[in-house]
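step 3/5: co-fold with hypoxanthine
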Amino acid sequence: MDAASSSTSQCRYSYEEYKETADWLLAQTEQRPKVAIICGSGLGGLADLLEDKTGFPYEKIPNFPTSTVEGHAGQLVFGRLQGRECVCMQGRFHFYEGYNIHKVTYPVRVFYLLGVETVIVTNAAGGLNGSYDVGNIMLIKDHINMPGFAGQNPLCGHNDDRFGKRFPCMSDAYDRELMALAKQTAEEQGCGKFLQEGVYCMLAGPSYETIAECRLLKVLGADAVGMSTVPEVVVARHCGLRVLGLSLITNKVVTDYDSIEKANHEEVLRTTKSRSQDLQRLVGHLITKI
Ligand code: HPA
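step 4/5: write tokens
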């Protein structure tokens, strides 16, 4: 089997498919957002805050994948946040749901074709850094693309130059200016002490990490671990979008064999619910400064 007919390549989308989706959306709404927000697990409440909003359930949008995970509503919402036009993904696509990596990242190229320039990505993550508390918000300053190490990079296969170049740089994946703005905004809101800055490591999931894996990730320099975000960021940077990433630390990972703590989805959802307002407020204020 040659590279072009390998399973990764077969699941890729054509430029025309992305374009068809973008053109359909542009025909449905007069809004032309420059900012897109990808809401992580349980963080879709942000989309509810939009004014003048129009929601498109994923299943109604041509070529769009559909979301299955609990806590994800699954719609694309156009509207204004603090007066600023944006488009919000309420519910994202995870690799662990069984989607191939091109489906996971499909919306990002659609954003690009809609004229979006900045993507804000949020997620729930486990804290590896011992100084992080549950409920902290971590500004993502860099990532470790663990699925990429295993051949699951969304840019594998033929490169379409209309989106970006073959070998995009990733050392500047997370926009320094946006990070500074986020810090400034958090200070202004009096929640600067909840803000951390660190390295996010993506694992495929859906099983949580073993103790040995958590220890390994710490040694590798990761501060938080999760099951999303990185593929979308890689595709966003490929097509030149600016990226801001925010992780809500929903739990501390277990690194001690004597601990009786266990990572679990209920705790993740519980923390997300109790802390999502602060994250939403931060993004809401930040967006007025972009
Ligand atoms: N591990 C992986 N993904 C996560 C975690 C975790 O501890 N918490 C929230 N998402």
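step 5/5: annotate
The pocket of hypoxanthine is lined by residues 124-126, 208-209, 225-227, 250-251, 253, 263, 268 (CB under 6 Å).
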